[in-house]
Structure formats: C-alpha cells, structure tokens
Predict the structure.
Amino acid sequence: MTKTEHTPPPNFIRNIIVEDVKAKKNDGRVHTRFPPEPNGYLHIGHAKSICLNFSLAAEFSGLCNLRFDDTNPAKEDVEYVESIMADVRWLGFDWDDRLFYTSDYFEQLYEHAVQLIRDGKAYVCSLSPEEVREYRGTLTKPGKDSPYRTRLVEESLDLFERMRSGEFEDGTHVLRARIDMASPNLNMRDPAIYRIRKVAHHRTGDKWCIYPMYDFSHCLSDSIEGITHSICTLEFEDNRPLYDWVLDELNVDGHPQQIEFARLNLNYTVLSKRKLVQLVEERLVTGWDDPRMPTLAGMRRRGYTPESIRNFCNRIGVAKRDSMVDMTLLEYCVREDLNKRAPRVLGVLRPLRVVIDNYPEDQEEELEAVNNPEDSSMGTRKIPFSRVLYVERDDFREDPPKKFYRLAPGREVRLRYAYYVTCVGVVKDDQTGEVIELHCTYDPETRGGWSDDGRKVKGTLHWVSAAHSLKAEVRLYDRLFKVANPDAEKGDADFKSHLNQDSLETLTSCQVEPSLGDAVSGSMYQFERLGYFCVDPVDSSDGSLVFNRTVSLRDSWAKIEKKEQQQK
Ligand code: ATP
Ligand code: MG
C-alpha cells in the first residue's frame, strides 16, 4: 500500500486526533480498534470502518486492534470469525499480534460487575422481560423504579453468583446498573449489563451461562486494550453517556473517547448482517460470497479489488450526518482501478457464426493485439484468425436503424486487430427465420485493422476464431434490489419483496480467445467493448471456464457527476 493511498482526506475524527496528539493526551498515543460481532460476513459498510480505524492508526504511528465482540453466543460462529479475518487481510490491513476477543475478558468483566454491585451501582432485578420493558417508560414518560432496585448488596451478590453457576433459567434475573429511571436518555434507565443465556459459546463452551451486554463489555474491553479513540457509528451516540458512566464508576485506568460517525448506506442494497443472513439462509442468493452481495466476500468473488474499495472509502469521506451513497460511485472506483490493471481480451457472449468466404479454408494466422493501451509494459499477445469466426449477435442487424454502425448486409466494418470485412450474405433457420450465420469477404490489404487507402469504417467489432476459441460460461449481474432504498420499507420481511428477480443472467455458450486457457482463478480481464470480468474462483476448474462480470464499461457515475457540476 502506498502512503498516499493510506492517508485518508482530513475529517472531523482525524481533526480530533490531531488535537489530542498535539495536547499529548494519552501521552500522544493513538490506538484504535475494529470490533466486529462474528454473527455474519463483513460488508462494504464494515470496510468503511476498517479503513478509518486502521488508516488513522497508521497515519499517527499508532496501533489498531482486531477485536471480536463475541458476547451473544446464540448468533455467533467460528465460520464468521474466520471469514472476518480473511476479509480484513484481503482489504490490506494487518492487526499483527493484536487479535482479541471480548470473551477473553469474561472473568475480568465479571469481577467489574461484582465491584459495581458492591459499590451499590448495580443490582439483580427479577422482573420478567415484559415487566422490565413496561417499567422502562418511553421517550415522553419517565420510567418507574423496579421493586428490586433497593435489594441489599449482599442479596444481589449472592444472586449474581448463583446466576453464574447456572441455578436460574434464561430471563428470570438480570443484573442492572443503578443509574436513573427518570433520565431523558432511555439507555440510562437502569440498563441491563448481564443476562442469563444458557447457550454454548464458540470459544468458551459451557463455561459461562451469563453474558455481558454490549454497553458494559464494549467500553471495558476498549479500556483493557488501552484504546484511545473508540470510533463507532452514529446509532451509538445515545449510548455514549453509558459508556462513560461505566468507566467512571469503576474508576478504571484508561478512559477511551467514543466518537461517532455516519454509517455507510449504499443504494440498491442492504448493509445489515441481520438482513444479509436472511438472504443467505432463505437461499435467495447462493451464499455470503454470491457476487451480488454487498459483502467483501461477494465483491472479491465478483472481481472488485481491495484497492478500489479502499479508494471508494476514502472518497466517500467521514461525516456526522447519515447519507446515501450512490452504487455507481463504487462501480466507478472499480472501473478506474481495473482499467489500469486488467489485460484486454476478446470474448463473445452471444456468438453468431461468420464465414469469411474469400479466406482459404486451410489457412490460419496470428495477429498482434495490445494487452493494455493504458500500460505499454503489459506488452502484446498473438490472437489466431481463420476462415470461421464468431462475432456478437447484437453486432449484426439485417435492417439497421440509424446510427447503428456495426454489421449489416453490404456494410464494411473493422474486426479489431484483424481485417476489414464486408457482409455479403445472411443464412437463416428455415423454421424460425433466425439469423444463424453470416457470410463476409475480407480485404487482405487491411491486415491489423488498418487501410492504406484512407478508407474509413465506422464500426469496430470484437470476434474470436471458431476453431481456436474456448467455450465459457459468463454470469451477468444486475442490482440485487429493484428499489434504491429497500431499507426504507417498514418491517424486516418487506425488504425482500424488493429483490430484483433478474439480478443474474447466465450465458452458457460464450466463446473467448484461447489465451484465456491459462487464466488464473480470480484474475480480472477487460473483454473489449463488454466490461470487466473475473474468473470465478469457485466454479471455474480445469476444463471449465466461468467468468463473473465485475462491472460494465459504461460509466454512469461520470454522467451523474457532470450533471451535478452543471447544476452548480
Ligand atoms: P450490522 O448492522 O451489519 O450487523 P453492526 O454494526 O451490528 O452491523 P458490527 O459487527 O457490530 O456490525 O460492526 C463492527 C464495526 O463496523 C462497528 O464499529 C460498526 O460501527 C461498523 N459498521 C457496521 N456497519 C457499518 C456501516 N454501514 N458503515 C460504517 N461502519 C459500519
Ligand atoms: Mg452489531
């Protein structure tokens, strides 16, 4: 990673850190963390948080930890732990030896909870979950004290210990902080800090049957790890007073500063593990790594590069207010990166057979093609030409409309890197009338695709030699959802009714140039005129080539940007 790419543009969090470093707060140290809950795969929203946390630490010669916030065993799994580590690494970041789990601190957290009880700052409450809700009040109505709020310290200590030893069933008791039932902030109305959950944990097994709540464990984990700036998303703004309360009441050594920023929202998709897990479990997509998913695993399989995602995260910036980012911006970043690195190749998605009548049947030749016009160091390659070719079905019209500059009866076009050809005949299926073959003549004087006599042609087509090309499957993807904001719909089930049923089109009889026989799994190419494609790492194997279309060549973001500038 280069330094420039590493350094995000200034933002309000960076400004806070600059001031803190200047003032020698925390002895000038910067220590951040990325704290995912292992209850699903990471999505592009997490990438924003990863880039922010790791890049800020790097910029100030600080450290960034990876911490699994694993306090809800019912929803968590080692599969998720492993995928998260793989995704963070793939994105280009390294936590060195600083891999932590909240579950590593369970004993310590328990001791802290006991301390709070001893200090009269927490009590075991035996209201039912419904009663707790009822007593909490609402934004307009103050809460009511639980009858257990005045429970003696000794009694709470005894009950808490027995909660730990498994004597009680789920939901019968909780440990609550004793704060203020009349607080205008609902989070401060004696929040639960420990609950009984008789579920095995993926790391601690059956050792624990009580688990700490997020608001209790998160701030303490940050403090234990010496975090200086605890960066999280806006929805935790109202939890900050509780974050500070716990650390102040326990009078622990380190007191990190919680700073909230706006989460990434991207149109035409959903960024919530809770929703994404439904798509996976209900088989509405093929898995977490389905190339239509906004997950890092899906994007990787689709051919998005880590560079393009990091670049996207830098461009969207870090703000204090929620907004919706246009998917076309992400696609623009992908295109920009692939344009530099992807070799160009010729591939035909919907082949139409073309016979060059005046090209000798037993002849073939090799033509030179440029691998990347953006990067001459990528050199050239040879592509075979012969009498029978395939061109794109869409590139022929028997009755061409205005401005259709491709093949039509009597029309001359250029075959890229090859020759000028003229359409002299059309063969149709007797039954259906469908065009099944074209006959053309070629001009031997135009080798390489250039004419000496200054004769111009308007169309340039891609093609492959039928005898040499390889069969491939190509998967074309469209938006996962039909509406820009599927999240805006009320209720969890509703978002699924907006799924785009046509988000995947599979083409099974594509033909690609023979050089792709050596294509490495996961590698990216530009199919000239068609877009960027990557070799599917899951379904491609020896003898079968499967490509995912990463992104088309059309750049709708550039158009949007131009329009916006005109409006200004
Ligand atoms: P989800 O709603 O998808 O489950 P989460 O916030 O519950 O997300 P966590 O695993 O708790 O997921 O998140 C780890 C970190 O990633 C947190 O610091 C969280 O704030 C951040 N994060 C999650 N989603 C986004 C997003 N859309 N944009 C920016 N940061 C995000
Ligand atoms: Mg969460």
